[in-house]
Amino acid sequence: MRLIDTHSHLFLEVFSEDFPQVIERARAAGVTHIFMPNIDSTTIEAMLSACSVYKGYCFPMIGLHPTSVNANYEKELEIVARELKFSKEYVAIGEIGMDLYWDKTYLKEQQIVLDKQVNWALEYDLPIVIHCRDAFDYIYKVLEPYKKTPLRGIFHSFTGTAEEATRVLEFSDFFIGINGVVTFKKSHLPEILAGIPLEKIVLETDSPYLTPVPNRGKRNESAYVKDTLMKVSEIYGMSPEAVGDVTSENALKVFGMLK
């Protein structure tokens, strides 16, 4: 079994007591790579520390999360710019995007921050990992001018409509990130996935959030990507091994690691 967790916040405080055990459980589940998205300047040190302990297994991204965009956003972007300039460790720019679920105060700033980071992705030839919450049309509007560029990336934790999935896939080098939400009783994702080729899907956990059934209610961790795999295998009518292989290859492709 080959599995990749393309989105996991294992560097957060909630894992500080048992981080090595979490990694061991992931390895035992067949997880070969864990990709860690940054949040803002307060998380860089913890993320890099976690990735240095498990170098070659855990891989860091750099970016400014939309919920961390506020009046101080220019200073935060300066830190991202500095990290990109002086470190070759980062495998993606993420997680970035827009989130209008809680608050629309900084809508304009979120658009500016997203566009700036998209430009850096092109400059440094890195994929982007997009967070989208109640903001699909706004994000699409920012991304649309880049449709004919080499921009590549993942629409992380996709919970949109079939039409939105189609619009994501207008970008030929974009993939759709599927996590534990697909296992939830009221999820509409199984119907949406029916119209998306498996070659466009990557798996993720978004640990410690969105724990899949049958562990829902517990803290999520990378090993539980296997529960999402089982559901996705059921939806596509394929063996877990085959789905694991295809989605892992997709992940390595988008992160530029396909041998």
TrEMBL record:
Gene3D superfamilies tied to this protein: Metal-dependent hydrolases (3.20.20.140)
A single GO CC term, please? cytosol
- Judging by the UniProt lineage, the source's domain of life is Bacteria
Query: What PROSITE patterns would the database entry show?
Result: TATD_2 (PS01090)
Q: Where, by residue number, does a divalent metal cation 1 bind?
A: H7, H9, E95, D206
Select a single GO molecular function from the record's annotations and give it: DNA nuclease activity
Q: Which UniProt keywords apply?
A: Hydrolase, Metal-binding
Q: Which residues bind a divalent metal cation 2?
A: H131, H156
InterPro entries attached here? DNase_TatD-rel_CS, Metal_Hydrolase, TatD-like, TatD/YcfH-like
Stored PANTHER family:
D-AMINOACYL-TRNA DEACYLASE, HYDROLASE TATD
Q: What is stated as this protein's family in its record?
A: Belongs to the metallo-dependent hydrolases superfamily. TatD-type hydrolase family.
Q: What is the protein named?
A: TatD family hydrolase
